Amino acid sequence: xxxxxxxxxxxxxxxxxxxxxxxxxxxxxxxxxxxxxxxxxxxxxxxxxxxxxxxxxxxxxxxxxxxxxxxxxxxxxxxxxxxxxxxxxxxxxxxxxxxxxxxxxxxxxxxxxxxxxxxxxxxxxxxxxxxxxxxxxxxxxxxxxxxxxxxxxxxxxxxxxxxxxxxxxxxxxxxxxxxxxxxxxxxxxxxxxxxxxxxxxxxxxxxxxxxxxxxxxxxxxxxxxxxxxxxxxxxxxxxxxxxxxxxxxxxxxxxxxxxxxxxxxxxxxxxxxxxxxxxxxxxxxxxxxxxxxxxxxxxxxxxxxxxxxxxxxxxxxxxxxxxxxxxxxxxxxxxxxxxxxxxxxxxxxxxxxxxxxxxxxxxxxxxxxxxxxxxxxxxxxxxxxxxxxxxxxxxxxxxxxxxxxxxxxxxxxxxxxxxxxxxxxxxxxxxxxxxxxxxxxxxxxxxxxxxxxxxxxxxxxxxxxxxxxxxxxxxxxxxxxxxxxxxxxxxxxxxxxxxxxxxxxxxxxxxxxxxxxxxx
Length: 520
Prior knowledge:
This protein has helices at 2-26, 38-52, 71-83, 87-113, 115-127, 129-134, 141-161, 164-181, 184-199, 203-210, 213-234, 236-252, 265-272, 278-285, 287-290, 294-312, 325-335, 347-357, 359-367, 373-385, 388-406, 412-439, 441-453, 465-471; strands at 59-60, 63-64, 457-459, 476-477, 485-489, 500-505, 508-512. The protein is mainly alpha-helical. It folds into three domains: 12-260, no CATH class; 342-439, no CATH class; 442-512. It has a five-stranded mixed sheet with strand order 4-3-5-7-6. A two-stranded antiparallel sheet has the order 1-2.
């Protein structure tokens, strides 16, 4: 009887976590068009792999793509062959990887800190804004974060009990991470573990941990076959494109214009951890208390290293900060009972949603200060899409959040989970689909029109890889010649004489160029 009750008690949190994962990661997974540039690029490279039958080297628009290693493309390819060539199939591997990530966090925290803390930590992760978005994105980061989390958590388990299985798991997950996104998957675990072992005054144990022959052989067995074959196939072009351009240069310089100040990731943290942002300050206010225990020290070193390393990096992108989110969720869950004035935590998500609800009031003010014709067109369309129904939906979500927060019979933990679910639904079922309709639906519609009419399209002054996917064709990126079909934006219409508009929506245009040569 006692064993039966124990199993029942363990089953309930797992069922709750599974339900919330379904809401956050899988609900509406294939409902919106792919976002450019990243989702479009990954998905189109997978489509070209499917068409060519070359499962070794990825190509984008007919040219080798050395941005990322191969694993995410293989998983997307398997998903496409299972579910068909659609948005759900391209995004499914990320959602599945994020679900494994959440499961790994729950399992580790359950063993270290107990079931209640584990459930809260996992729910914080699943319902947080940035994780929820990245879990539904057809890119490599959901899979990479899964590999990083499994590797990092296994390292601490090995530190605590010397388990050989945990060490093998850490090396195996790191190998899969390197096959997903490259050296960052060993840089973070290696650097953080070294710092932690040194803080614990056990540097010799770190060397014994990493210089383990079976673990090294496992890592090499996962990583080396593809990297070796890719080098034999592409030679120095692969080394220069992947290793130097997309790894070394990302740290030493700003790549593709993605730069920022030393404090770039502070607003990213404040927004990315929504609706639980307030608990970040609770963690910071209790640092001295937290530093008294080895697990907390490990988690803080993990988070601190990611924050510092990518703050110093020349290339800055919001999703880099997610590499350090796993430890923060555990720390937030652990310090949660010490949170002062928990009712004030609802202020963060309420203000966030109110800001979006006020877009019909904000857009006219912003539009009056912008001269770019494309941005003006986007804002004009946004004003049409964010009318009274939009305001009512988000106002209703804010009202529900406040009612849940003020409910007298709910525990603080249940209030947080309830607020998280409401916030997640508002973002995933309203805000993100609205952004997709505004920014990406015109690209998809233009692509489908081109496919139906058999157009050969030139991209001029724009780059939308998702157009290639939906049109199932390649497109040159250059200035158009007379008589060619052109994909561009309204910003560049004035440079053409008497263009024939074939499609126009939200600033995206498909036209026939009747000019000999467009003005520069």
